[in-house]
Automatic annotation (TrEMBL):
InterPro entries: GLPGLI (IPR005901)
Entry protein name: GLPGLI family protein
Signal sequence extent: 1-17
Any single Pfam family the record assigns to this protein: PNGase_F-II_N
Native organism taxonomy: Bacteria, Pseudomonadati, Bacteroidota, Flavobacteriia, Flavobacteriales
Alphabetic keyword roster: Signal
UniProt organism field: Flavobacterium jejuense
Length: 248
């Protein structure tokens, strides 16, 4: 299983086989389709989640109207894995990500999300799910979670729900996670992520990432300007997280 060949940050290499549960999700990120995997084990210090690209082949989306080109950066246009590790003993979330071609580790304090619970239920993948809603970093999300499995986890950065999240989406439905498969009792070996990766805070990561995105947009704009096109430049639009704690 190649996607399990890089696992646990700061943890020693483990040679013994372990049993894990892997929850797979179909993920929509704007116009892009991704595949997410949530890996849960009682034997490890960390649970982790990652997404991989699916059918992504462009860095820039170009809308042409009346000979004017509107340049927008498209989210997630590379194939590298974005891995998130959840420490069971600390309140820290580690994100193994990249800026341009540099792989880095971005760390942040995991923010406990305040959910409002509803009596509404529905069945997803043969499990009865309860509804909860919350605001998280500028977006309102609706989550459907089940307590019929002994797992209290969710994809991406969602947390603090008393069950396994099988479906979640924001109000605009630009960002959607829908369970596609649950694999129980898989036996895998664990490996450690490269300890030499540069480690930076979430704030520094966001600052550097947005500078890089704006640079790519400027490069695309320059190319079309050199061809004599009239350009209207768009500011970089944030994705899942619109506003961070240090901006409040």
């Amino acid at each position: 299983m190649k996607f399990l060949q890089t696992l646990f940050l700061f943890a020693p290499l483990l040679c013994l086989a372990q049993s894990v549960t892997i929850i797979e999700y179909d993920v929509q990120v704007g116009l892009l389709q991704r595949q997410g995997k949530l890996v849960v084990s009682s034997s490890y210090e960390y649970n982790y989640y990652f997404e991989v690209a699916k059918n992504e082949n462009t860095n820039v989306e170009i809308n042409e109207t009346n000979n004017e080109k509107n340049i927008n950066k498209v989210l997630g246009s590379k194939d590298e894995k974005r891995i998130q590790l959840y420490s069971k003993n600390r309140d820290t979330l580690y994100n193994v990500d990249y800026i341009d071609k540099e792989n880095i580790v971005c760390y942040e304090i995991a923010k406990n999300i305040s959910w409002e619970f509803s009596d509404e239920t529905k069945v997803i993948s043969n499990y009865t799910c309860n509804k909860a809603t919350a605001f998280f970093r500028g977006r309102k999300y609706t989550a459907w979670f089940t307590t019929e499995l002994p797992i209290n986890q969710a994809p991406w950065k969602f947390n603090n729900l008393p069950g396994l999240v099988l479906q979640i989406h924001d109000d605009s439905t630009q960002f959607i996670w829908s369970v596609s498969k649950i694999n129980f009792n898989l036996i895998i070996d664990s490996y450690s992520i490269n300890r030499k990766l540069n480690k930076i805070s979430l704030k520094e990561f966001i600052t550097r990432s947005e500078l890089e995105n704006n640079k790519l947009s400027d490069q695309a704009m320059l190319k079309f300007t050199q061809r004599g096109a009239k350009i209207i430049k768009s500011e970089h639009i944030r994705g899942r997280e619109l506003k961070f704690e240090w901006e409040e």
